[in-house]
């Protein structure tokens, strides 16, 4: 969908202030992604696109206030590839904290951070600190949610192997944004399960193409089922937040 200036606004909620007031949601959903290489077949914005796809699925199934995405995250492990842009963990921490504070001032007491990039480790700390202050915040999806979705969708590759630009991410984009998946993903498979020095050496020590996973196994059908499963898994998270639980946290794949 194009705005008046020709900008694609499909990732940006188009609510008016009256819409938000009438909906009266007490839980906001914030997609957080990254802007980093995803091999030759997926766009730099893949993590943001995935986070937004998950967030839209949640907003369609639950009475939540959908926010626009944070589009740049902590992608320092991808710095060797052109196009990758990062912000510091301190900056990302501050952005999410400020958003949560702003929401509370307007009467939205709970925030769900939908993280699309595994390198945004600091988001877990944001949620932990919010819990200590008795604020309501959650990080979604957790690793368990991704594993449930993987099995339900018939994703063959394990979460360990499907680390980056693999079967899961390719499937979600084939479903949500097929026009953005470049040709060649069928022959882009590359695996590197032993990545014990990833934080020290970066991704380029383990892959030349930027891919770690099996994108050749991706399909739009799997992508649709992955998102549906995550929406179902969110029920527990939503119930905890709306029941007044202080905070919960989770982890996600890259």
Keywords:
5 strands; alpha/beta; 254 residues; five-stranded parallel β-sheet; disordered N terminus; 39% helix; single chain; Rossmann fold
Structure description:
With 254 residues, the protein is of the alpha/beta class. It has a single domain (26-245), classed as Rossmann fold (3-Layer(aba) Sandwich). Helix content is 39%, strand content 8%. Strands 2-1-3-4-5 form a five-stranded parallel β-sheet, with helices on both faces. The longest helix has 23 residues, at 220-242. The protein is globular. Mean pLDDT is 93; it is low at 3-7 and 245-249.
Question: What's the short story on this structure?
Answer:
The chain is an alpha/beta fold. Helix content is 39%, strand content 8%.
Under CATH at level 1, the class stands as Alpha Beta
**Strand numbers in spatial order across the main sheet:** 2-1-3-4-5
Distance between the termini: 28 Å
**Bulk shape:** globular
- The amount of beta strand, in percent, is 5-15%
Please indicate the count of domains.
1
The tally of beta strands, per DSSP, is: 5
- On the 0-100 scale, what is the average pLDDT? 93
Helix content: 25-40%
Main beta sheet: 5 strands, parallel
Looking at the overall shape, the CATH architecture is: 3-Layer(aba) Sandwich
Considering the protein shown, what is the CATH homologous superfamily? Answer: Creatininase
């Amino acid at each position: 969908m194009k705005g008046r200036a020709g900008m694609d606004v499909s990732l940006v909620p188009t609510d008016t202030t009256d819409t938000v007031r009438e909906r009266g949601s007490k839980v906001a959903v914030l997609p957080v992604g990254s802007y980093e290489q995803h091999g030759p077949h997926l766009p730099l914005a893949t993590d943001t696109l995935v986070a937004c796809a998950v967030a839209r699925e949640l907003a369609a199934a639950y009475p939540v206030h959908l926010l626009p995405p944070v589009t740049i995250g902590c992608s320092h492990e991808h710095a060797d590839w052109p196009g990758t842009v990062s912000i510091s963990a301190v900056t990302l921490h501050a952005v999410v904290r400020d958003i949560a504070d702003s929401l509370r001032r307007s009467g939205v007491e709970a925030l769900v951070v939908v993280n699309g990039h595994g390198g945004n480790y600091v988001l877990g700390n944001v949620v932990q600190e919010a819990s200590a202050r008795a604020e309501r915040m959650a990080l979604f999806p957790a690793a368990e949610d991704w594993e449930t979705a993987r099995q339900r969708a018939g994703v063959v590759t394990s979460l360990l192997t499907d680390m980056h630009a693999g079967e899961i991410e390719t499937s979600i984009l084939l479903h949500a944004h097929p026009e953005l998946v470049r040709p060649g993903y069928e022959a882009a498979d590359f695996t590197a399960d032993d990545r014990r020095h990833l934080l020290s050496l970066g991704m380029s020590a383990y892959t030349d193409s930027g891919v770690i996973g099996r994108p050749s196994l991706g399909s739009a059908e799997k992508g649709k089922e992955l998102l549906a499963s995550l929406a179902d898994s969110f029920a527990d998270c939503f119930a905890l937040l709306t029941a007044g639980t202080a905070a919960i946290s989770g982890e996600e794949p890259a």
